[in-house]
Structures are given as C-alpha cells and as structure tokens.
Here is the input.
Amino acid sequence: MWQIFNAQYGEKAVIRHIQCANPQEAEQVKARLAAGERFETLVHTMSRNNRTAPADGELPPFTRQADSWDNNVTKGKIPQGFKDFAFGLTTKVGDYSDTIQADNAYHILKLERKTEPKVIQFKDVKDTLRADLQEQAITKGVQILRNQLLQKAQATLKIEEPTLKKQMEERQEAARKAASAQAEERARQDLMAKIKAATAPSVPPTPLPNNLKVPSGTPAPGGAGTSPATAPPGEQPPATKSAAPANGGSATDAPKSK
Here is the structure.
C-alpha cells in the first residue's frame, strides 16, 4: 500500500542531461560549465542524444520508485545513477552532477526542478485504493478461472481432425517430457547432495600432547610390530642376552670361548 502512495503522490524530479561518447568529452563539458557556459547551450553543441537535445536535454519527470521512463521519446529503464543524483540529500536545484556512466554512454546531469511529496490522508484516497485492490483481485481471479477452464478443456477435449490431433499430441508429449526432465533434474540434484554429504571428510582427530605421543616405530599394544629381522638397517634393536640354559643353570655358567 505504501508503494501505491509513492507512485501516486511521491516526489518527482526533472533533470537535463548531456550525453557524451567517452569520459574525455564529459570532462570537456564539466570544464566549460565551470568556465560559465550555460548547460542548455552545451546540450546543443556537445550532446550526442538527438532525441533529447531539441528539448535542451530535458528528461521526463520520474520518482524514486519508477523503473522506466513514462514517455514515447525517452524509452528504457531509468539509470540508478540518475536517481541517486536527483534525490541525493545534498543535491539542490541547479546543481550539476559528476560524470555518470549509463547505457554505454557518459552523462552530465543538471537538476532542473523537484516536486515535493504531498501529505495525503487515508480518508481522502481510501475509495481509490479500494477500487485498485478490487480490480487487482478481479484480475487475479479471472486468471485463476481461465487456467482452470483451460486444464479442464485439455482433459476432456477430443479432436477428430488428424492434423490438429497430431499437433495436440505433440504438444502434450513435449509438455510431459519437459515435466519429466525437471523431475529427473530435481532427483539428480537431491542424489548429488546426499552423496556429497555422505562423502564429506570427517573432522580430523585432536592430536595427542607431545608427552603422550607413541614413539615412531613402536608397535601398537597387542599388535604385531615390525620384527627386528625386517627392520631397516640402523633401526634394528640391540641383541638381547641369551635366555637361561634349559638345565636350570645361570647364564654365567655357560662355557667361555677359548
């Protein structure tokens, strides 16, 4: 509802512009304006827009909310840079803009005049608003009813003429294929998302403190470590003392070598 108020009663701005082909031309315009030349004179001598130049570069009035020009001469969307300049907090009537790039061109703007917003009471416009809302509701209802009738007609329609029947079947088949392709694409995306979630790398374990780390090469408890026979040279453990004799004698009772 606030948008409706703005569209009908919001402030409007009128600007003039000089359209240049490149930044160098725009700088020339700024220099000549600084030297005291009139904006309207420079429009006729330097602007490259042949549609707006005869009107001294004046563009149609526009509001903050307007998207496109409401004019048969000036067409297309209103550049955001034009709005920012026209409704800037520090912009005053008669001010010139810096170079604004829009629509593959460079523009110097002049704020010609502004129409301040009017204070409107709801009781003064409630009938208009009610009529607008009713019209929107009717339009939406007619569209829904039209779609329902179309679906019902397509479901019960029988075509006997061969050519028309073939065309209808081809269209229905194309619609079914399009719907099937969309469903397959959605299923594929869901499957890829599940696979991605299942194969996502797990969070790495927290490393142990240095005083609790197992030395390199030490076999895990209860597991089969690297045997000395297969250990790389230089990593084999020193030979241990021989086991006690089977007759119960001590290791020192073994015969000494001569």
